[in-house]
Amino acid sequence: MKRSCLRFLALCLISPLPALAQPASKQSETTAKKGIGLAERHGMGEPQLTALKAGWYYNWGSETKLKSSATFVPMIFSLKHVDDRVQGAVVLGYNEPDNEKQSNIAVTDALAGWPQIARKADRIGSPAMAGNPLTKEWLKDFLKTSPKVDFITVHWYKGADAKHFIRDMEAIHAAFGKPIWVTEYAPQTIASSEKEPSKFSQDEVDEFIIEANRWMERTPWVERYAWHDSRVGTSALFDAQGELTLTGKTYASHPQSK
Fold it and tell me: Which of 105, 168, 190, 207 could staple 97 via S-S, CB 3.0–4.6 A?
């Protein structure tokens, strides 16, 4: 009996104990909604898409040279590009036609070129406004004739207040009654970031990303979103070497799996 007990104790001492179950840690994930306006012509490419865990991207052009698992969405930037050939089920419309430094198109001219855009894909995104689409008239006037527009494309640069961002998206959705793609958003534009790169603290920007991304992932009528890299300051996703900044790391790591 004693020998049996001793042998049992010896086996217990030399046998490895079963590992205790550890609580699953939350991991960041690639989602179809999260994307990026990628500065492909400035050398950004697949490494940046992978680092951000982006599910889709656009480059302000009608084609891409990248081979990526992320979905490319073409854009018809201006009237000069309405004859461009595109591939894919979705096309983004004119980029900031209300901005003289961007596509700068009168509503009547934009409408004249729109049928060519509408034939290029199954789903067409509205022209994206530089100004507030609710208080300015360009988009309202454009939509009066009911051109083919399947979702409203939004640009937003109004600080690091996620609640303000959410209120604005809800107001735009209520006004136009269509899904939304937020194709540019950040606390600051490139110009603002160059003037005041530290206007918003890293903590403020991180919290904005976490709250805004969480809300957009949970909101069915927000179909896609894409941060706009300001290149400098706390709204920048990448440093000069193309590596993730602290803001880029936060964007890459949110949303998180449940």
Answer: 105
Give the span between the Cα atoms of 201 and 234, in whole angstroms.
Answer: 7
> In sequence order, what are the residues at sequence separation of 6 or more whose Cβ sits closer than 8 angstroms to the Cβ of residue 14?
none
- pTM for this predicted structure: 0.88
**Is there a contact between 256 and 26 (Cβ–Cβ < 8 Å)?**
yes
User: Is 110 among the domain residues?
Assistant: yes
Say how many C-beta atoms besides its own lie within 10 A of residue 116's C-beta: 14
Residue 199 inside a domain? The answer is: yes
CATH number of the domain to which 171 belongs: 3.20.20.80
Most distant CA atoms of the chain, gap in Å: 99
DSSP-assigned states of every residue in 73-110: --B--SGGGTT----SSEEE--B-TT-TTTT---HHHH
The answer to whether position 156 is within a domain reads yes
116-145, pLDDT tens digit by residue?
999 999 999 999 999 999 999 999 999 999
Tokens representing 236? Answer: 């920048």
Q: Which among 135, 131, 137 has a CA at the least distance from the CA of 154?
A: 131
Q: Which domain holds residue 175?
A: 29-252
Upstream peptide bond of 255 is cis (omega within 30 degrees of 0): yes
pLDDT (tens digit, 9 = 90+) per residue, 199-229?
999 999 999 999 999 999 999 999 999 999 9
- 147: helix, coil or strand? coil
Give the number of C-alpha atoms closer than 13 A to the C-alpha of residue 131, restricted to the C-beta side. 14
Total tally of structural domains belonging to the chain? 1
Please report whether residue 72 resides in a domain.
yes
